[in-house]
Amino acid sequence: MMKKRITVIDGQGGKMGAALIARITELGADADVYAVGTNAAATAAMAKGAAGAATGEGAVKYAARRSNVIVGPVGIVIADSLLGEITPEMAAAVGQSDAVKILIPVNRCGAKIVGAKSLSFGDTIEEAAREAIKALENKEN
Fold first, then answer.
1. Taking Cα atoms as reference points, which of 38, 22, 31 lies closest to residue 73?
2. Phi then psi for 71, rounded to 5 degrees?
3. Which of 49, 71, 83, 100 has its Cβ near the most Cβ atoms within 10 Å?
4. pLDDT digits (tens, 9 = 90+) for 45-63
């Protein structure tokens, strides 16, 4: 049986993605944690601590087909978000993936999630990391 896979997708400078990978790993997820950046800078920031890292649209599509859980800012499912880094194809691949999606409300993605709690960056990372592990444990594959 293949080891389960959590994929963290991020863009811009990859700060959120790097923090997510570090925390998911610290919590001892029973999965390989992969980093997918929408640009080279984001990928480089997230690569440390990841089981593997890749960049761009092809990497997002590949990861979306093979992941059990995908974690990232809400913009990863919105075409042209993250200052245009998310292509329509990337958004569709993530949205159509069978993976559980843990989406983090980030106002700079051009979307406001009504009812979402306003948390500090650290608390947001902690909650998302714990939700990713919980989703992995609850998802039957």
1. 38
2. -125, 135
3. 71
4. 999 999 999 999 999 999 9
Sign of CA dihedral 112, 100, 95, 61: positive
Note if the pTM is more than 0.90.
Answer: yes
DSSP string, 44-111: HHHHTT-SEEEESHHHHHHHHHH-SEEEEEGGGGSTTHHHHTS-HHHHHHHHH-SSEEEEE--GGGT-
115: how many CB neighbours lie within 10 A of its CB?
5
Contacts of 96 (CB under 8 A, 6+ apart): 64
How confident is residue 141, by pLDDT bands cut at 50, 70 and 90?
A: very low
Q: What integer is the mean pLDDT of 1-17?
A: 91
Q: DSSP state, 135? A: H
Output the CA torsion sign for 37, 39, 44, 45. Answer: negative
